[in-house]
Amino acid sequence: MITAGLVEALTGIVGARHVRTAPAERLTYARDGLPTHRRVPAVVVLPGSRDELAAVVRLLAAHDVPFVPRGAGTGLSGGALADGAAVLLVLTRLNRILSLDPSNRVAVVEPGVVNARLSAAAAPHGLHYAPDPSSQTACTIGGNVAENAGGPHCLKYGVTAQHVLALEVVLADGRVVELGSPSGEPWGPDMVGLFVGSEGNFGIATRIAVRLLPQPRAVRTLLAAFASLRAAGEAVSAVIASGIVPAALEMMDQSCIRAVEDSVYAAGYPRDAAAVLLVELDGHSDDAVVAETETVHGLLSAHGAASIRVAADARERERLWQGRKKAFGAMGRLSRDLVVQDAVVPRSALPEVLEAIGRIAATYQLTVSNVFHAGDGNLHPNISFDARVPGLRTRVDAASTEIMEACVAAGGTITGEHGVGLDKLRYMPLIFDAESLAAMRAVRRVWDPEERVNPGKVVPVHACREWSGLRIADRGLRIEQQARSPAQSAIDNPQSAIAPRGAR
Amino acid sequence: MIDRGGSEALDTCVHCGFCLQACPTFLATGDEADSPRGRIDLMRALETGELAPDDPALRLHLDRCLGCRGCEPVCPSGVGYGRGIEAARAMLATRRRPPALARAALRALTSPGPSRIVYALARMLRATGIPRRLAGWGRFRFAMGMLAATRPTRNAKRGTRNTRAAASSAFRVPTSALLFRGCVMDGLFSHVHDATVRTLGVNGWAVGETPGQVCCGALHAHAGLREEARLLARANVAAFGEGDVPIVVNSAGCGAMLKEYGHLIGAAGFAARVRDVTELLTAGGGPRPGAPVDVQVAYDPPCHLLHAQRIADEPLRVLGAIPVLRIVSLPDAAQCCGSAGLFTLLQPAMSRAVLAPKLASLRTAAPQVVATGNPGCVMQLGAGLAASGLSAAVRHPVELLDESYGAAGYYA
Ligand SMILES: Cc1cc2nc3c(=O)[nH]c(=O)nc-3n(C[C@H](O)[C@H](O)[C@H](O)COP(=O)(O)OP(=O)(O)OC[C@H]3O[C@@H](n4cnc5c(N)ncnc54)[C@H](O)[C@@H]3O)c2cc1C
Ligand code: SF4
Ligand code: SF4
């Protein structure tokens, strides 16, 4: 229960300015990047340090009050929302880059560091942080870890999970543990891999050690226009089948192209094309990259590209990418309200699925725009609508569900990178049976037996790098029987993957 | 259709968050209630009645908005934040008069009678050199620093009001333009007006005076006093009359406001004539190069030039016409300095918090001169530099060009 006494105690830890209780202030935290969900938190707390955060969590545990971590609130599944019974812990003030070691290519950051600011800090050393979600100028590394965020360049370089080396985590009871090791070679099971993508259900990441990569020396970016979605989809398959791994391979349809071209981020995409592909090739030798560019150029023409443009310089390349990355925001121009979906389908199924989405849009008379990571089959259909029109919301929901069903039927799944959060809870049963869902819950309870962190949102464990082949159901149940948290086992055995602070 | 007074400009917000890192107040507190996206939520709640106009938390966070519009050029959805916040402030002002301090400041600085006395006294005080010595932190000492920053630098050519420049040095027949004098600019920065007239003269513009003009009304509009702003706007439209002679402005805040007269009172024709001085100087490939000035300059773009008027390159091209002058770049130059009209007086704590990162990057860049084209920014940066013990002077870009032209003998 949240009492006046509790609020006073919170104030004692973080200071009155950093505890927000006024309705107006709480209201500004009621939504994230997917504004169709709205929950007003009971209290908002902005801790200024890891120690303050841990003290707050201990206090909340003692009062048995649930809480939700929040980074920049750009999530697209309603994950960072807390309701009237919970406290929202906002991590924006934990925004220091604690160390940046160019020779070992490792940076250690607090969770509130904004993704693009980390790359900017690494740039003078010729390095960058590779995962580049389109929201990178706003979203936080903590939020990226929680969602296992991807981005255009993750096609070649891998998603967040491939770049996180070690984590410091505040568990639900306020204990602070370390997962992994900055060398990237931990003992025992891959706890970092398990935590990445846990959507705030396993605890709060307070320090994050990430790998930095050298900036590629040679880069070429192509923009190809197509007269149909199908042709563009087939060109994607052809590029991948050629064995070349582009740094990025992105698709945008006409409605999306036009929204971007109307915005301040206009990139010169051809307005009359049914779809454009943005392909980037990079590497360390210019010759090799030029040769690959020629091959890709040939493949794109062979698959019906109406025009192909190669960016002349870094400036033009940046403009082409800015247009792509701001596309979701630009969609606001089409209508007042917007829902975005996030499904993954096998690349070979792209042409069929895109056509199916077109048919569903026509049936429900809705505007659906597509902008997505084509190279890994990660679709983002955006439905634009005006929620003030009576009955429209129901139609949008029905169309969303039908789109999801079409993706699942094509052998796909319900989230590529935005997570389940609140929004996709309803689709979980489309792909998991009851036993699997129970197992996931059991895994969550290992970390957070009382389900106090980010309650009411289901753990998909989609980022688990090493467990993916295991029968999660069996394992999860066994862990629940033991009813031991990882932190407890770590205290018994400091050699385990999770060591209490100071044990190393 | 109901007239929503500008709130409709907020409708396209999709909550993506791209504006967060562009907002100086969000960067200062990390609190979404101090972010553009959060304030849009507040304004929407105000419009729908979910929050009452006298809600203290709502007022606090809307009052803490600088109105710098740094959130606009980064918004992919084209949200008209500036119009939205002025509509919200106008609505709040109908419920509660702006604070006494704001009203007193407006009267002292913008009303023709009293302001003449205020500025005369201020100039006398400035001439004693006392403000320079008192400059520092704290409300009073910061205000002294602001006043000290308005003082023309020694090597600036002293001109009189109607200094006639050597328009003859231009080959073409001079084109006419009319100078907008403003209130603070006229009271404390007449040397910038003189430099404007002279440098434009060299570039083929004959700049004339317009009697009957008044304050642009920007400070009133920001405070939610829309009717007062409209009265001033109508007076200016009447004073400048019909025709298409460009109206030249050297204060970014005034320029942005004058360009808004279309929205404010339907005077789109007037708005279309308004040009920043750097726009006129760079028209047709200008400005004409001057003599070398050996100085290191950091350009700090005023928000109302960069974000509101989207003028980015022109001031740099003006500085580029000065041989030898070196421009040092400032990281996050696009961030507001915290001046924001009356904001520095009304919200001193937030204003200083926004200024702090700017001063930190100036300390690192260590320029000899900071160039910026807005009176509020000159005063805020000048006071901040003085209080931090940094010796850089703050000047309008045309002052530097004027010095270069003077050295070149164009005025001989
Ligand atoms: C325009 C736009 C484009 C986007 N593009 C992409 C894209 O290309 N790829 C992609 O993957 N995503 C994308 N997203 C989604 C979103 O940006 C990512 O999910 C991002 O990782 C969220 O970061 P955040 O800081 O905003 O987190 P929030 O939204 O604040 O939180 C997201 C989740 O993480 C949890 N969380 C936050 N911090 C922590 C922490 N320190 N420890 C534990 N849990 C925590 C929260 O509880 C919540 O469940 C996009 C979003 C927008 C609006
Ligand atoms: S960038 Fe624009 S659309 Fe996105 S949250 Fe900010 S104001 Fe809204
Ligand atoms: S106008 Fe400036 S201070 Fe106000 S919300 Fe926009 S960026 Fe922030």
Radius of gyration of chain A: 23 Å
Treating each run of at least 4 consecutive H or I residues as one helix, how many helices of chain A? 18
Percent range for helical residues of chain A? 25-40%
Q: Biggest sheet of chain B, in brief?
A: 4 strands, parallel
Q: What is the β-strand count of chain B?
A: 8
Short description:
The complex is a heterodimer of chains A (504) and B (412). Chain A has helices at residues 4-14, 23-27, 50-62, 115-122, 141-147, 154-157, 191-195, 229-241, 254-261, 286-302, 314-325, 327-330, 350-364, 392-409, 428-431, 434-447, 472-482, 486-492; strands at 19-20, 43-45, 67-70, 87-90, 97-101, 106-109, 127-128, 164-170, 176-180, 204-211, 213-214, 218-226, 248-253, 275-283, 307-310, 337-340, 343-344, 367-372, 378-379, 381-385, 498-500.
Describe the structure.
The complex is a heterodimer of chains A (504) and B (412). By secondary structure, chain A is of the alpha+beta class. Helix content of chain A is 35%, strand content 19%. Chain A has 18 helices and 21 strands. In chain A, a hairpin with a 5-residue loop joins strand 8 and strand 9. In chain A, helix 8 runs antiparallel to helix 13. Among the domains of chain B are: 87 residues, Fumarate Reductase Iron-sulfur Protein, Chain B, domain 2; 123 residues, Rossmann fold (3-Layer(aba) Sandwich). In chain B, the strands form 2 sheets. Chain B has a 4-stranded parallel β-sheet. In chain B, strands 6-5-7-8 form a 4-stranded parallel β-sheet, sandwiched between helices. At the A-B interface, helix 2 and helix 12 of A face helix 2 and helix 3 of B. One iron/sulfur cluster binds next to helix 1 and helix 2 of chain B.
